[in-house]
Design a protein that fits this description.
By secondary structure, the protein is an all-alpha fold. Helix content is 71%, strand content 0%. Part of the gamma-tubulin complex.
Length: 79
């Protein structure tokens, strides 16, 4: 059985893992910040399917980009 880490050691280990994942994320141009990356890790640790999570993130980004394009489009004015 592995030795139990105290809470400070656990937090430090978690930071190191997120640091490494952030570097990988940056290399892959995922555009996920540390908070988003941490949330994704937590979701996956709690049983969310990683492929499904990636699909949802991509779909949300497409929808956000589409909404942004629509809101930036010149509106027709009637006089």
């Amino acid at each position: 059985m592995p030795p139990q880490l105290d809470p400070v050691d656990k937090r430090q280990a978690a930071r190191e893992v997120i640091d490494i994942l952030q570097e990988i994320s940056d290399l892959l141009n995922t555009n996920l910040d540390r908070t988003e990356l941490s949330l994704c890790v937590s979701l996956i640790e709690n049983g969310v399917n990683p492929d499904a999570l990636a699909t949802v993130i991509k779909d949300l980004r497409k929808e956000a980009a589409s909404t942004k394009r629509v809101s930036n489009a010149p509106s027709a004015t009637t006089e």
